[in-house]
Design a protein that fits this description.
It comes from Zygosaccharomyces mellis. By secondary structure, the protein is an alpha/beta fold. The protein has 2 domains: about 1-120 and about 275-368, 3-Layer(aba) Sandwich (Isopropylmalate Dehydrogenase), CATH 3.40.718; about 130-275, 3-Layer(aba) Sandwich (Isopropylmalate Dehydrogenase). It contains 13 helices and 12 strands. A 10-stranded mixed sheet has the order 2-1-3-12-11-4-5-10-8-9, with helices on both faces. Strands 6-7 form a two-stranded antiparallel ribbon. The chain is globular and about 60 Å long. It starts with 6 loop residues before the first helix and ends with a helix.
Length: about 375
């Protein structure tokens, strides 16, 4: 089980966790349309068991939405999420590899519009035959860094050739927020396991001002709250050596906090340690709404074949519920998924099996 509740967020919500939840469903493109229904099925099954009522609203975002409406993130999608939904499930989007006028990533925009400042990505090995003890949570700052998408291209006056520049933004405000939630997750692990280590990842040896600020503020949050976080071991790791050690010694890492770009790369890379991006979940956490999001892409090569792995979405559904204060239904999902993976009898092709998406869903549902 991931047990990634955050004291300041999930615990507060647990006291007032509503039994009636409106959940936005945003399939997006490609296999997003196949895996998001899996999350819906799981919620419906758990609702019956735990006395929860879910209303679902289908929303659009992605490349197909851009082609149909001229906007990758329609205003109506944002409005409904802000005004009506406590949670949402986001599938995947197919983004063009070359510049298309008017198009920009809808999930990046959604994180900004809804104040989803933290992306929480647990990576855990449970399957048979895996001798690497992987059990880490990567906490990624979700709103700034290079992802503010402030870029320009111009012609250099001296060489007469094109130059492209992008601004990397690291702010004290955003860094304090991500450091606090990472430390709260570490505290939760300390309380349940008796030990916890937070590793701050940066490249301040080169980027002394931007990554230097990230490093400085994370340490400041820790030091000024020693009465609360003093039991947590505090480490730092340069990002390139972090990648090396993560693949060589994944058991060394517990909770990892990183700026947006590094967190994106580290979490996707870490998925290779546990078999597939198809099993790695995430939650985009904000003060008013939580959006579960599998870490895989739209996978156009297998879209429509019914063989996409729904585990990442199912686990993301659990994360969403946990951050909304419903920890017991979330634990039910974790247990069901873990046992299904350990048995390994119903796996999709990315895990070496031949099962369909729905066969995996049915297997998980049978364990509730």
């Amino acid at each position: 089980m991931f047990r990634t509740s955050v004291a300041k967020v999930a615990a507060r919500r647990a006291y007032s966790a509503p039994k009636h939840l409106k959940i936005g469903l945003i399939p997006g493109d490609g296999i997003g349309k196949e895996v998001i229904p899996a999350g819906k099925q799981v919620l419906e099954a758990l609702g019956t068991k735990h006395g929860l009522n879910f209303d679902f609203v289908n929303l659009k975002a992605g490349w197909e939405a851009f082609q149909q409406q001229g906007k990758a993130l329609p205003d109506e999608t944002v409005r409904i999420l802000k005004e009506q939904c406590q949670g949402a499930l986001f599938g995947a989007v197919q983004s063009p590899t070359t510049k298309v006028a008017g198009y920009s990533s809808p999930i990046v925009a959604l994180r900004r519009e809804l104040g989803l400042y933290a992306n929480v990505r647990p990576v855990k090995s449970v399957e048979k035959g895996n001798d690497r003890n992987v059990d880490m949570i990567i906490v990624r700052e979700n709103t700034e860094d290079l992802y503010i998408k402030t870029e320009k291209t111009y012609v250099d006056e001296v060489t007469g050739t094109k130059v492209a520049e992008a601004i990397k933004r690291i702010s004290e405000v955003a860094t304090r927020k991500i450091a606090a939630i990472a430390l709260d997750i570490s505290l939760q692990r300390l309380n349940t396991r008796g030990h916890a280590t937070l590793t701050v990842t940066h490249k301040s040896n080169v980027l002394s001002q931007s990554d230097g600020l990230f490093r400085e503020i994370c340490k400041d949050v820790y030091e000024k709250n020693k009465d609360k976080y003093g039991g947590i071991k505090y480490n730092e790791q340069i990002v390139d050596s972090m990648v090396y050690r993560m693949f060589r010694e994944p058991e060394c890492f517990d909770i990892v906090v990183a700026p947006n770009l590094y967190g994106d790369i580290l979490s996707d890379g870490a998925a290779a340690l546990v078999g597939s991006l198809g099993v790695v979940p995430s939650a985009n956490v904000g003060p008013e709404i939580v959006i579960g999001e599998p870490c895989h892409g739209s996978a156009p090569d297998i879209a429509g074949k019914g063989i996409s792995n729904p585990i990442a979405t199912i686990r993301s559904t659990a994360l969403m519920l946990e951050f909304l204060g419903h920890s017991q239904p979330a634990q039910d999902i974790y247990k069901a998924v873990d046992s299904a993976l350990v048995e390994g009898v119903v796996n999709t092709p990315d895990l070496g099996g031949k099962a369909t998406t729905q066969q995996v869903v049915d297997n998980v549902l049978s364990r509730f």
